[in-house]
Amino acid sequence: MAIIVDLDLQLAKRGLSVGEFADAVGITPANIAVLKNGRAKAVRFTTLDAICRTLDCQPGDVLRWVPDEGADDA
């Protein structure tokens, strides 16, 4: 199972830099990089709320699930 974070797409749509976005959300640019690069193990709801408020979007606009390759359709 893989959860993909599509922040790059959302930032590009809105013309926001990572620094501007990090300031608006209230987390560090390094933590934004962790999210964008798929290295995050968890996201707090308060952080997800701040992301969605800043981008004026739904959680599904920044997070999506992709099944593992070769996974059974059980």
Task: Kindly describe this structure.
- This protein is mainly alpha-helical and about 70 residues long.
- It has one domain (about 5-60): 434 Repressor (Amino-terminal Domain) (Orthogonal Bundle), CATH 1.10.260.40.
- Helix content is about 55%, strand content about 10%.
- The chain contains five helices and two strands; from the N terminus they run E-H-H-H-H-H-E.
- The chain has helices at about 5-15, 20-25, 30-35, 45-55, 60; strands at about 1-5, 65.
- Strands 1-2 form a two-stranded antiparallel ribbon.
- The longest helix has 11 residues, at about 45-55.
- About 10% of the residues are buried.
- The mean pLDDT is about 90.
- InterPro entries: Cro/C1-type_HTH, Lambda_DNA-bd_dom_sf.
- GO terms for molecular function: DNA binding.
- It comes from Streptomyces lydicamycinicus.
- This is Putative Xre family transcriptional regulator.
Core attributes:
53% helix, 74 residues, Putative Xre family transcriptional regulator, 434 Repressor (Amino-terminal Domain), mainly alpha, DNA binding, two-stranded antiparallel sheet
Q: Any chance you could write out the topology, listing elements then pairs?
A:
Layout (H helix, E strand, L loop, with lengths): L1 E4 L1 H8 L3 H8 L3 H8 L8 H11 L3 H4 E4 L8
Antiparallel strand pairs: 1-2
Helix pairs in contact: 2-3
